[in-house]
Every structure is written in structure tokens, then in C-alpha cells.
């Protein structure tokens, strides 16, 4: 079953005739083509990918027979073409991405199409949460690329390098190993800046005795990888080793608790308890994990507010951390597939403390 068929099945289940897809990632999920700069309309009998002259040839070559590719241009603007496709489809009960469209955009499409749009709600996100075998293969390949880049960079890191230089090496080496780009701007921080969960790489120089935290990811076929490793340079104090050990034990506890059908907050709680019991409860402010796929952060979430069960086939990060303000921090992140029997790790890179 392809994604158009999955969407049609969900439309029928919700009593909808069609859905208008304008978000770039959702368009890629639906039609399998990444560069539309237009719209996708999925109806019960036909699906339409509407794009402009920059992408029309590539789109016609990329999509399969279940999608009709239409051109919009100055003489036939996007709104007009969507209206024509809607008329051809015969759809009346039309849903739109209320979670992705602006209020003005939602009203504009209602006026253009002459229909009161119905909210699509979580229609696309819920489908995207469950990954197909092909999607999982792309995410695994992206992870292998990231790990290959990390292995090379670990041989390069030394005192005197800046955070920005390490980040540049990671990006360069991911591209060399086949990444289509960064799944997000890499985080590389050292010394006291490792207490910043989302610190920005700068000109801070790595020194002996520092932690260096690297959070980065690759893209393959549009799908993301995500990983974090914290390493020590030259030496690590007993306190640094203890904090690292607590974070690692917390991550393992969360992974052990993770399986399909479990609420996100239950996974988070398993890891959070380890950190709290070690006396670092207030130093773990973010959630244990987030799902990912075509985007680096996708629902559902393994966080204290995660009241949604993680479905079988979803992919979630596992990234607890401890952050001591102004001193240092540790985060370890892997990515896992949620199965009925437990969590299957995509990440293979070692996560025991490495002292370079």
C-alpha cells in the first residue's frame, strides 16, 4: 500500500472526500516528490500534484501512475488549478491542514474554493508516525552516514580546535558519506557551554579536561537521523564520569521501558527516575525523546506531557541529559523503532564514555 492509498483509507474512515495538502513535508509524504512549491489534492478516485515549470519534468518522472501532475503558471495560477482539480474530483467534504496553514491561508482557500474547509487535524501526522519498511531503511541509512562522519571526526578533535571547526568537519564528512544535507543545524559545544542543551557552535576553543557535546543528523531520501555524543578531551573528573554514568543509565532505562502502545510520559518517567534518584532531577529539563521522520521533530513525544501511546513502527529519539549551569552538561542520544516487543535501536555507535 502506498501513501496515497493510506491517505484515502483514512479519508474514508473520517467521512471525508478529499484533503488539500499544502505543507511541503506532507506533500512529499503524499506524492513522493520533494520540490512541489505548489499543492497536492488527494481525493477518493484521483490524486493531483500541482507544481510549476521548475519542477514539472522531474515531478512527472518521479511520481507513479496514481498521481496526476498538473502545471500552474502565470496564466493558470495555483489557486485556479486547485479549484479545477477539486471540480474534476467531485469532492465536497474537503479537509485542509489546519495545524499547518495560517488562519489567513485557511480563509483564503475557503474563499478560493467556495467551500467551508474541514480540519484535517492529525490526519497526515498520524499516518506519518508509523513508518514503512522503505522509510525505516532510509532512516537507517541516514544514521549510518552520521556514524561514519562521527568516527572520522573523533580522530580529528583536539585541544585548540573551535566548536565551529568541529561542526564544519561533521557537516563536510556527512556530505562526503552521502547525506543530502543536515537534518538540523548541528550543535557542537565544549566546556561550560555543554550545559546549554541547544547551544550554538561558536569560536570557543576546546581545552584539555573539557566535555564536547555533538548533536547532529543526516538526511537520506528526505528522512532524518539524529544522534548526540558527549566525549571528554584528555581527561575527565570523577564528577564528570558520574554524571555521564547517570545519563547513560537513564537512557538505558527509558529504552527498556519503550515499546509500542506505551504512553510517551511512561517512557520519560523511567529515565527521569534514574536522574532524580541520583540527585540531578532539576537538571533534566527537556523530554526524553521525540519522534522523527521527514522532520526532525514529529509527534508523538516521549515527554512528561506525552499522553499519546507511541504506535508500532514509530521512530523516537532517546536523549536524556543532565545540565549543570555554568559548569558542564552531558547528553546521549540514540534513535529507536518502537515494536510490540520493545525498542529496536537504529543507532550502533558506542555510547560508553570516550576520552580522546
Q: Brief description of this entry?
A:
The protein is of the alpha+beta class.
Would you give an account of this structure?
It contains ten helices and 18 strands. The protein is of the alpha+beta class. It folds into two domains: 126 residues, 3-Layer(aba) Sandwich (Creatine Amidinohydrolase, Chain A, domain 1), CATH 3.40.350; 213 residues, Creatinase/methionine aminopeptidase superfamily (Creatine Amidinohydrolase), CATH 3.90.230.10. The protein has a six-stranded mixed β-sheet, sandwiched between helices. Strands 7-8-11 form a three-stranded antiparallel β-sheet, with helices on one face. A three-stranded antiparallel β-sheet has the order 14-17-18, with helices on one face. The longest helix has 22 residues.
Amino acid at each position: 500500500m502506498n501513501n496515497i492509498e493510506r491517505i484515502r483509507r483514512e479519508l474514508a474512515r473520517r467521512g471525508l472526500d478529499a484533503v488539500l495538502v499544502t505543507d511541503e513535508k506532507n506533500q512529499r509524504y503524499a506524492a513522493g516528490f520533494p520540490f512541489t512549491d505548489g499543492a497536492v489534492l488527494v481525493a477518493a478516485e484521483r490524486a493531483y500534484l500541482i507544481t510549476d515549470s521548475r519542477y514539472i519534468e522531474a515531478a512527472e518522472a518521479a511520481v507513479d501512475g496514481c498521481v496526476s501532475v498538473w502545471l500552474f503558471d502565470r496564466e493558470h495560477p495555483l489557486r485556479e488549478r486547485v479549484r479545477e482539480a477539486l471540480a474534476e474530483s467531485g469532492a465536497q467534504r474537503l479537509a485542509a491542514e489546519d495545524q499547518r496553514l495560517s488562519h489567513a491561508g485557511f480563509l483564503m482557500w475557503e474563499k478560493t474554493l467556495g467551500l467551508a474547509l474541514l480540519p484535517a487535524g492529525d490526519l497526515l501526522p498520524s499516518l506519518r508516525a508509523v513508518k514503512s519498511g522503505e522509510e525505516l531503511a532510509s532512516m537507517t541509512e541516514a544514521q549510518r552516514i552520521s556514524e561514519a562522519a562521527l568516527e572520522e571526526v573523533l580522530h580529528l578533535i583536539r585541544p585548540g580546535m573551535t566548536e565551529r571547526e568541529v561542526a564544519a568537519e561533521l557537516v563536510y564528512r556527512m556530505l562526503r558519506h552521502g547525506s543530502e544535507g543536515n537534518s538540523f543545524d548541528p550543535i557542537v559545544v565544549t566546556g561550560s557551554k555543554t550545559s546549554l542543551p541547544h547551544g550554538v557552535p561558536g569560536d570557543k576553543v576546546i581545552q584539555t579536561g573539557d566535555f564536547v557535546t555533538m548533536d547532529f543528523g543526516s538526511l537520506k531520501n528526505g528522512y532524518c537521523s539524529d544522534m548526540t555524543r558527549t566525549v571528554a578531551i584528555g581527561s575527565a573528573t570523577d564528577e564528570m564520569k558520574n554524571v555521564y554514568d547517570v545519563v547513560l543509565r537513564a537512557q538505558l532505562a527509558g529504552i527498556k521501558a519503550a515499546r509500542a502502545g506505551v504512553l510517551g510520559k511512561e517512557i520519560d518517567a523511567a529515565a527521569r527516575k534514574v536522574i532524580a534518584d541520583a540527585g540531578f532531577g532539576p537538571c533534566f529539563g527537556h523530554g526524553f525523546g521525540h519522534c522523527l521522520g521527514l522532520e526532525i521533530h514529529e509527534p508523538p513525544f516521549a515527554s512528561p506531557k506525552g499522553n499519546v501511546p507511541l504506535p508500532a513502527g514509530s521512530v523516537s529519539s532517546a536523549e536524556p541529559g543532565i545540565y549543570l549551569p555554568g559548569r558542564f552538561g552531558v547528553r546521549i542520544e540514540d534513535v529507536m523503532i518502537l515494536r510490540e516487543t520493545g525498542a529496536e535501536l537504529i543507532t550502533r555507535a558506542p555510547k560508553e564514555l570516550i576520552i580522546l
